[in-house]
Amino acid sequence: MKNILIIDSSPSGANSFSRKLSEAVGQKLKAKNPGAVIFHHDLSKIPTPHLEESHLEAFFTPVEKYSEKQKVAISHSDKAIDEIMKADAIIIGVPMYNFSVPSVLKSWIDQICRAGKTFKYGANGPEGLVKGKKVYLAIASGGVYSDGPMKAYDFTEPYLKTVLGFLGMTDVKTFRVEGVAIPEVKETALEKATSSIHI
């Protein structure tokens, strides 16, 4: 393992539990692979644009026919795809917002899902083209969603595993820091989460 990519999506800065967890996962990976280099992309500071007409036009236009506007539009998707293709391991920091992922993470996903680049359609249906990656989800939530009555409300892990799997990233492991809004749980939530990290 040479390259580790950390994608963070929380706007909470140093107070973010998902960031603390993604960093802990990164350090565990680094310890196991001393020669690896960690690359960090903070979507709250350098967001990937939400899809607009210019992006969609560029997705379906041959490279040699790009307009200047389309060249700029496609560059965001190209950069995001290049980052994941170069990575051997990808860590995604995910705060649960309203039972799902933050919009900045959704826009990043929309930019990396490109027919012919990260997946293709063949005689046997769709095939993911992003293969051989290890992916770690670092999910933070105010409540407890990994088990119990609120599990059905969790649309973070199921969604991410589905869309990443569609792109070929099927080796996905999830770590959670849960209950950070529950008084009797929050004091030990991060410690419990970091101690669960086994790479």
Distinctive features:
199 residues, alpha/beta, Rossmann fold, five-stranded parallel sheet, two-stranded antiparallel sheet, 38% helix, globular
Notes on the structure:
This protein is an alpha/beta fold. The chain is 38% helix and 22% strand. The longest helix has 19 residues, at 68-86.
Give the topology, please.
Blueprint: E1 3-8, H1 17-32, E2 37-42, H2 53-59, H3 68-86, E3 89-95, H4 103-112, E4 119-122, E5 125-128, E6 134-141, H5 157-166, E7 171-178, H6 183-195
Parallel strand pairs: 1-2, 1-3, 3-6, 6-7
Antiparallel strand pairs: 4-5
Instruction: Supply the CATH superfamily name.
Output: Flavodoxin domain
In the sheet with the most strands, the strands line up as 2-1-3-6-7
Q: In angstroms, what is the radius of gyration?
A: 18 Å
When the domains are counted, the total is 1
Helix content: 25-40%
**The CATH top-level class label:** Alpha Beta
Low-pLDDT regions: none
Shape: globular
**Multimeric state:** single chain
- The tally of strands reads 7
- Kindly report the CATH topology: Rossmann fold
Overall pLDDT confidence: 96
Biggest β-sheet description:
5 strands, parallel
User: What is the beta-strand fraction?
Assistant: 15-25%
Number of helices: 6
Order of helices and strands: EHEHHEHEEEHEH
